[in-house]
Amino acid sequence: ENVENENNLLLPGCEPTVSTITDNNLEESAAVPDLDPAKWKINSSLINYFILNQPIQDVKKINFNKTGRMCGKYFRKLPSSIFIRTLHNGQITNREWLLYSLSANALFCFQCLLFSNKKSNLGNLKFRLKNWGKCEEKVKFHEEGQQHGESIRIWFSRTQKTVTSIDKMLHEEMKSKLDYWTNVLHRVIATITFLAERGLPFRGKNNEFGSVHNGNYMGCLEIIAKFDPFLSEHIFKYGNQGKGNVSYLSSIICDEFLSLMNNLVLRKIVAEIIEAKYFSIIVDSTPDIRHKGEQMEEALIDKFKKLDIDIKNCRGQAYDNASNMSGRYNGLQARIKKYSKNANFVPYAAHSLNLIGSNAAEITKEGTRWSSGYEVCKALSFGYKNVLQVLQVLSEDNTQQPSTRHEATFDSTSKKLQSTNIDLSIVVQLYESLEKYILDLREMFDNFLKDSQELSGKSAFSWEETRKKKRTAFYDDSNSNSTVHIGKDKMKKDIFYVIIDTLCSNLNERKAAYLVINKNFGFLFDLNRSDTLSIRQSALNIVSIYSEDLNTSFVEEVIQFKKITESFHNNDLSMNGLLKKLSNSPLKATFPNVLIILRIFACMPCTNASGERSFSVLRRVKNYLRSTLSQDKTSSLSLLSIENEMLRSIDWSSNHCMKCKLLA
Question: What positions does the domain HAT C-terminal dimerisation occupy (predicted)?
């Protein structure tokens, strides 16, 4: 029975084995001997059998009325109490070594019968104990004797040796099977990781090894098998056996591993969030009239509850500029602030810059030919990579004329705003520098006009008018004639100035959201140029805002920290520099509140580019050929592709992954 239970623990494909230990001649013990000790024929086979299967006397099956016999002058029966031993403290134990023979109507000692050299009545088939007179005294004398103790020792030693041998064999076989399937799973996981991190499809038209239509998953396994004899033999043995046969190569197992790997990566992300404590929310969504702020709120809060993340630790939000997301009253940003009042909303910097340019282009009333726009976009699409390289060179080349560099500057600013290591203080600087740059362009109209005339070879404007159009006057209009610009003045005042002024106006408007946050935190990155009084006032202001995270000792910490930063290099005075410097030094124990405020500021997003990139991955993962993917599988594949670095860094053979039932 014990052997069967052990085999139930084996991996699929492990078959129960019958132990064959030559030392104990277990092959000879196939026949079950009679449990009546008077009928035993003592040999190695019998001994080996009872070592593994100790006979237990069932007292309830003994009819004590039929055990009576004449013992001298008296007729006596076998007392039922003979199978029970009462200790000196009153405790009762069973005499498991004592057996009753129905055929001989006698008692025997199980261990002495098999292992004792000196035969006593209880350990001798010939003499046995059959005189019930004073039998309790005789049994007690026997169990306290040296001969019985030696037999017990030999029996126990043989039992342990045999059991140990069997356990060892079972353990070795289980380990062999475990190692085999672990090696298979290592190759399966490596293949899944390779495909998932690149967002490649898994399945093909069929699931047959050897077919050219079996998909990337089986195809990769076949490529590995060409150079891996172990996997080649496994595929040959288990590859195309069909359902009901364990191979760990099927599509079902592949999907299960995708789900398990997704859960492990997600738990690792959540663990990092909980360890960091402070976090921000970045949400991007496809345009849908059904997406309301309330629905987005419910979806987010439900997700946080499932992941066991405390929404109260949210310190920033970044969405696109849709009203259901960024609305001040009913948008998602306003609803999240009900849970965390310090979850500051930060507009998407690069998207804001894009809207500024779009608004400036659309503000003019002059029409443009769509065919011209089409040709420009077409030319740009064919040479986009080369254009980007040229723009990068031009934006960094100080020898170029300003008229050549201005477009590259605008584009490089947009790309800088989308970088992953940017912080809000840099965003404000970029917006201010771009605003100043655009104001300088306002005085360069003549240069642009000259360059455009040289490039086009034309000096006249296409809308030169031969006569002045008469405008219909309404009753509330003034009598003064309106100024009508033509030619150069029309281009300059009705188009060029309008675009420049609109750009500056929108830059100022959208910069305001960043200025508020940067005003609260900006003093931290200008400590060396600030006096103690202004630092104290700024510190008190930020303590009042983040009263749940900071205490009043923050003020003195910052003033003391100012002295420390005097020895820092300029690169260490930025937000990222200060945070890394403080986090990796013993100073973090001295300035805990400074570290907290730096972490809060660092977690505030200034771009939603991560959300946009996620949609790019989703679009690549779920193309039209994979439109039938379930939502869970799509989410798993997307997460593994987005977090490909984290996926690759996980050691799937570690004890943690073994506990996750990935390789066990």
Answer: 587-646
